[in-house]
Each structure stands twice: as C-alpha cells, then as structure tokens.
Specification:
By secondary structure, the chain is mainly alpha-helical. The protein has two domains: 198 residues, Growth Hormone, Chain: A (Up-down Bundle); 192 residues, MFS general substrate transporter like domains (Growth Hormone, Chain: A). It has 19 helices and no strands. Helix 6 packs across helix 15. About 10% of the residues have low confidence.
Length: 442
C-alpha cells in the first residue's frame, strides 16, 4: 500500500501536471475570444501557442541547468511561482505583443517541471516501482486534457478568456503550496552542473533520447491526422469522431498502466517491446482503416501501445544518466516535443506528395521501428559494457516504503486518462472550424 507521504507528494506533482496540461491546450479552444478581445486575427493568436512551445524548448534545459544546486522541492515550487506569474501576465495582458511575451514566460516552467517531477517521482517510489510512480505524475497531464481544457474553454467563453487563464494560475498556486507541504524537503547530494551536462552526452543517454524522438514520432505521424483518417478512410461521420476518440482514450488508459508496470518489471526490454508494438499497431491500422468497426478496434490498440512507451523511456533515460539525472530527464521532454514535430512533419510530407492518408501509417510504422532498433542497440551495448550483467541498472538515491496502487487511485487514474486525447482533438477541431468561419466572414 502507498505511504501517505509518497501518495500526497505524487498528488502534488500530478496537480502541477494538470495545471500545465490545462494551460498548454487551453489557448486552442479560446482563439476566437482572444482574437476578438485584442483586435487581431485568429491566425495571429495562434502564434501565442508557438510562443508557449518556444518557452518550453528554452526553459527545459536552461532552468534545469540552473536548478541543479537546489533541493528538488524548492525547484518545483519556484517553477510553479514562475508559472503563476506567467498567468497573471497573460490574464492582464493589455495587448497582443504582451500576450506573446506572457505565454513565452509561462512555457519556461513546463519542461523543467516535468523533468524534475520525474526524478522526484522515482525517488519517492519503492525499489522496482519507479515506472509506476512516473506514470502517476503524468496522469495529471491526461486529466487536464479530459477535464481542464473543456471546462476551461467553457468558462472562457462564458466569463472571458482572461478569467480562464487566471483560474489556471490559481491551480499553480495550489500546486506550489501542495509541493511545499507534501513533497519532502531533502538535501540532495551535491551535483556538479558539468556532470549533469556531460551525462546527457553519454552514449546510453543519447541513444535513449534518440529512441524517444524517433520512435514516438510514429505516434504523431498517425495521430496528427486521425480525424481525416476516421472520416475519409473509415467512413465515420464527422459528428462521431469525438466519440470514437473516447474509445481511443480508453486504450491510452490501459497503455499508461501497462507502461508503468512494464517498465518496473522489464526495465531493459519494455521500451524496445513498446516501440516495436507501436510499429505493428500502425500497420494494423493501415489494414483496418477501411471499415468503421475494424478501424475502431485498431485505433484502441494503437492507443494502448502508443501510451505504453512513455514510462519506460522516461525511467530509462534517468536510470542511465549520471548524477541526479535532471538534465537527462529535461532533455527527454525536449525529445518528446521533437517527436511531435518530426512525426507531424513526416506525415505532412507524404500527404503533400500525394500518397494519401494511408501513407501516414506507413511513416508511423517506419519511425516506430527505427526507434525500437535504436532502443535495442542501447540495450545490447549496455549488456556488452564492462561489468554489465545483462540488466539495466536501476539507480536509486533513496527508497521510501513499498507501495502498490490503491483501488481508489486506480479508479481515478482510469477516469482521468480515458478519453483524454479525444478532448484535445475536439478542441483542435473546434478551433479549426471557428478559424475557418472567421476567415470566410472576412
């Protein structure tokens, strides 16, 4: 059973993940409202999304590098303070350029928070339960897509977009207080920044980052175009897409749970297995996308294996890194963002070349297979290293008490992850439709 200390600490981290996930996608659902208030076009407001993403890219390595000398609890609380200040600036932005600056500042905390949170989650877990702890933290991100984004969008449409972002800032305050109250304040062993930075350049770390950036690109090569795949290939009506993606979300529930536990049970091979299965799932979708029933089953399977790979990759990159693993963990967040860009861009290229939607699944299969191969090379090199015993060394700095997921937490987890992706898709589709309407009126 989980200790009260570790459970509350993981809840605090998951709350932060919920707040960050909410703000990341909230702007997509409020583009028309923001554009109207600031007297700019919807496409112009779209750059606020890009400004946030740029903040993530800049902040992940920079703030993590600056935080290596301080206790993790203080770092997490400080990042949430920056997050709150960014939302205050967003809510009171007097004009368009001030909004862009505010969203950039808000994004700075994103990657570093998740990087540090993953390290803390591992330290709170009992030996052999690191992957499960990591997956609990990232459950907050999926709950944000399930609840935070649609609720925030609705509130923004009724009360105004500034209120919506202000309320997300309040979540940041709650997170900072919860972190200070529940995450243990521990004096970490002194870590030299040079050690952290050089550790990212180690072959095992680089191979794991490459497996993440390339392999999970297979997910985004397909999912970036899931709506037209469902309507144009499978024959679903447009109104049914959101409901179909709810079933996909249920698949991600199983995948996340299996990924955390698989990482704990097979720390060496779970990433290889997951990426290989993702490649196979892309091919299954390729063959099943021509009929609604088979496409639905294939999409759920795709959700299972796509979300399986996250915890093993995060757990592994921290395990093989020297020092605290903070920089490696932050770099892995950047690798996931790179996978998003790579997969979507690769899919766009084959579509632009006229190969059709089915080609995106081929691209996804190739990327996932390439990622599995990279992960396999990493494992083989690890086994062949001097002193290697054939198993990935699980490096731990402190172990608390053995804990297993309670039924209540598992129920909340199931409710949180199920349908998460459907909400993101629905928000994006709605924003796209509104942008098209605004353009047509103009």
């Amino acid at each position: 059973m989980p200790t009260s200390t570790s459970s509350r600490a993981l809840l605090a981290l998951a709350t932060g993940a919920f707040a960050i996930g909410s703000t990341e996608f909230l702007m997509m659902g409020l583009l028309p409202e923001v554009a109207g208030d600031l007297s700019v076009t919807v496409p112009a407001v779209g750059y606020a999304i890009s400004a946030y993403a740029l903040g993530v890219v800049v902040g992940a390595p920079t703030l993590t590098a600056l935080s290596t000398r301080y206790p993790h609890q203080r770092v997490l609380a400080g990042l949430m303070v920056l997050f709150v200040l960014g939302h205050v600036a967003t809510a009171f932005a007097p004009g368009y350029h001030e909004l862009l600056a505010a969203r950039f500042a808000t994004g700075l905390a994103h990657g570093s928070f998740f990087g540090v949170a993953a390290v803390v989650a591992r330290s709170l877990a009992a030996p052999g339960k690191e992957g499960t702890a990591i997956s609990r933290v990232f459950t907050g991100l999926t709950v944000a897509q399930l609840l935070g984004v649609p609720v925030g969008t609705a509130l923004g449409q009724v009360l105004g977009w500034r209120w919506a972002f202000g309320l997300v800032g309040v979540l940041g305050v709650v997170t900072a207080l919860a972190v200070l109250r529940w995450v243990p304040l521990r004096r970490e062993a002194p870590v030299r920044l040079a050690t952290e930075l050089s550790g990212v350049l180690r072959p095992q770390v680089l191979l794991t980052l490459a497996a993440t950036a390339v392999g999970t690109g297979g997910l985004f090569a397909v999912y970036s175009y899931v709506s037209p795949i469902l309507t144009d290939l499978a024959g679903f009506p447009a109104a049914a897409v959101a409901w179909v993606l709810v079933a996909y979300g249920a698949g991600t529930v199983a995948g996340t749970l299996l990924g955390g536990r698989g990482s704990d049970r097979w720390p060496e091979g779970s990433a290889v297995l997951g990426l290989a299965a993702l490649s196979l799932a892309c091919l299954v979708m390729l063959g099943a996308s021509g009929h609604p029933a088979t496409a639905l089953v294939a999409l759920v399977l795709f959700g299972v294996v796509a979300f399986f790979v996250g915890p093993p990759l995060i757990n592994r990159v921290i395990s093989v890194a020297p020092g605290s693993g903070l920089m490696a963990s932050a770099a892995n967040q950047a690798a996931f963002n790179a996978a998003n860009a790579l997969g979507a861009a690769a899919g766009a290229q084959v579509l632009a070349a006229g190969y059709g939607l089915r080609a995106t699944m081929v691209v996804g299969a190739v990327l996932a297979a390439a990622g599995a191969l990279i992960a396999l090379v990493a494992v083989l090199l690890q086994r062949g290293a001097p002193g290697g015993a054939g198993a990935l060394p699980v490096r731990r700095r402190r172990a608390v008490v053995e804990h297993e997921p309670s039924l209540v937490l598992e129920a909340l987890r199931l409710a949180g992850v199920a349908g998460a992706t459907s909400c993101v898709a629905a928000v994006r589709l709605d924003a796209g439709a509104r942008e098209a309407q605004t353009t047509a009126r103009g």
